[in-house]
Description:
Layout: H1 3-14, H2 22-49, H3 52-62, E1 63-68, E2 75-76, E3 82-94, H4 96-101, H5 105-115, H6 119-128, E4 135-141, H7 143-151, E5 157-166, H8 174-177, E6 179-180, E7 186-188, H9 189-193, H10 195-199, E8 203-209, E9 215-223, E10 231-232, H11 237-254, E11 258-265, E12 271-277, H12 296-299, H13 309-319, E13 327-329, E14 334-337, E15 340-343, E16 350-352, H14 353-358, H15 362-369, H16 374-383, E17 401-402, H17 410-417, E18 422-423, H18 426-437, E19 441-442, E20 457-458, H19 462-475, E21 493-503, E22 506-520, E23 527-534, H20 543-546, H21 548-561, H22 575-593
Parallel strand pairs: 2-10
Antiparallel strand pairs: 1-8, 2-3, 3-4, 3-5, 6-7, 8-9, 11-12, 11-23, 13-16, 14-15, 17-18, 19-20, 21-22, 22-23
Amino acid sequence: MPRAKLTTARRSQQDVIIPISTWRYKTIGVLFGAAFIGLISRAVYLQVIDTEYLQSQGDARYLRVQTQPATRGMIMDRNQQPLAISTPVDSIWMHPPTILQQQDRYAYKQLAGLLELSRNDIVAKARSMSNRQFAYLRRHLSPQLANKILALDIPGINTQREYKRYYPAGPVLGHVLGFTNIDNDGQEGLELAYDRTLKGSAGRTRVLQDKVGHVVEYVEQISQVQHGTDIQLSLDSRIQYLAYRHLQAAVKKHKASSASLVALDAKTGEILAMVSMPDFNPNDRSDLRSSRFRNRAIADSYEPGSTVKPFTIALALEEGVVKPDTLIETGPGHMFIGRSRINDTKDHGAISVADVIAKSSNIGSAKIAMMMPARDLYDVYRELGFGQTNKLNLPGEQRGILAKRKKWRPVEHATLSYGYGLSVNTLQLARAYQALANDGVLLPVSLHPNEQRPRGRRVFSTQTVEAVSAMLEQATADTGTAPQARVPQYRVAGKTGTAHRVVDGQYQDDSYMSLFAGFAPVSNPQVVMVVSINDPQGVDYYGGRVAAPVFSKVMEGALRFRDVAPDAIEPKPSPLQLMITRPQSTGIAEREAG
C-alpha cells in the first residue's frame, strides 16, 4: 500500500472517539446534586430550624450547673450556747481527662504529698473516671491546706467550698445531737430528726467552663441558696456537762456496762440534761459504732424496781385505803403468794405506810397494792406515761412494757406494785416523778424551751403529793435507804431502786439495775432527776450507794446553776468543828480539783 494511504488510515483510526452512554452522566450528576442538596438542607435545618441539638452538645461540653451549699442551721442550748455549728472547709476535685494528660511528675508528687495520697492513687482514680468531668480527690480540708494545693497551679485541680459539722461539747452531747455524714445529712439524734429544718437547700448557678474545668462566665442563677434554720434546745449545757462527768466517773468506779441520767424542769417538763454511757465523739467519724451512739436514756428499758413504790402508795392514799400512819405487818421479812415468795432485805416488823417508802419494803408495798383492784394500779401507771412514748421525735425512743391483761394473777398484782412486771426508760421514769414534784400534775416533756407553761393532766391530789413527798424526804434521811442522795442546804425527796436484771428471759441473781429518782428542793421543787446504772460490779450495787451519790452531785450543781434558793439552811459549825474538819475538807477539794 502506498505510504500516503497508510498515514491517512492511521489518522482516521486515532480520530475515532468511543461514545459513553448519556445515562451515566445523568446518574452521576443527580447523585452529586442530591448529596449537595442534602448537606445544604441539613445545615439549614440544624442552624436555622432545629438549633437545640448543636446547642445542647455545646452546652454539654462547656456549660455546668454549680451548687452553692447551704449552711446547716446551728443548734443551741437554752442559754444560746452553740452545741452544733457548721464550719467552712474546702474539697479538692479534679478534671480526670486533664489529669491524665499531665506530664509534670514533680507537680504530681507535691499534690500527692499534700493530700496524703500516692501519685498512683491519683492516676488510678482519674483513669477509672476518665469519662467524667468531675471527681473528688479529698473532701473537707482546711482552707489553708486547700490554698497550698491551689498554689501548685496544676491544670485540672480545683476546689469547692463545703461545710463541715462541728460539735464543741464533743461526747458530752453526742447521744442527743447525733451527727451528720460527709454530705452534711443528719444520721442520728436531733441531726436526723430535724434534718429538713437544719439543712436548708443549696443554690444552683449555671456557669460556662473551659476544658480544664475553670469557670469562665456565670450564665444565670437558677435558684437562690436557702440556709438552714437554727434550733434552740431546752438543755442546759452546764448541767449536761456536770451530769456527764459524774455519770462517767460512776460507770468507771463501779465497772458498769452502761448508764443514763435525765434531768427535767419540774414546772415546765423541759429536759435540762440527758446523758448516756458509753459515750462517743460525734466529731470523730472513725469511731461511730452503733453500740456507742445508742441514746440509752430513751432507747433502753428496764424494770424500775422500788422507784415505783411511791406511785403505789399515792394511789392507796387517793383511794383512802390507807393513811400515812397506817401500820402494815411485814414480818417475818418474807411472804408467799401461791408458790411465789416475796422478800424484804430484813424483817421490819409492823411499820407505817411512810416507813414502807423509807425502808423500801416489798412486802408492805405488795400488801397495800392488794387492798385495791389491780386494774386501778394499771390505770395510774398508764396515766403516768408508762408503756407510751414521750413523742420527742428522737430516733430510737422505746415505749417500754405495761402489759394489759383482763385479769391479773395475784402475784402479778403484787410484783407490779414494786416495779417488776413492767419496764420503763429513764425519761419515762423522770416524767412520772415530775408529777409528784408538780403538785400532782403531769406535764408533757420537751426538748425545746416552752414559751408558755404547758397544760398538764392531774394525776394525784395536792394532799396526796404532799404526803408522798414527806415520805420520799424521809427516804434520804440517815435512817432511810439513800442518805447519800442529800444535797447540802437543800431538802431532797427521792427513792432508790435495785432491780434484778433480766437476761434471756431469766432474772439474774448477781446482776442489778441501780436506780435513784427524786427532786429538790422539797419546799418548792425545781429539778427532777433520775439516775440509772446498769450492772455495777463489786459489793456496792444498791441504788442508794451507786446511783444516789451521782444524783446528789449533779443536783447540787443544777440547783446552783439555776439560782434556786436553799430551803434547809444548816447551822454554822463551831470553830472547834472547823479545826477538826478543815484538813479533810481541803483534801476533798484537792481531789475534786484534780
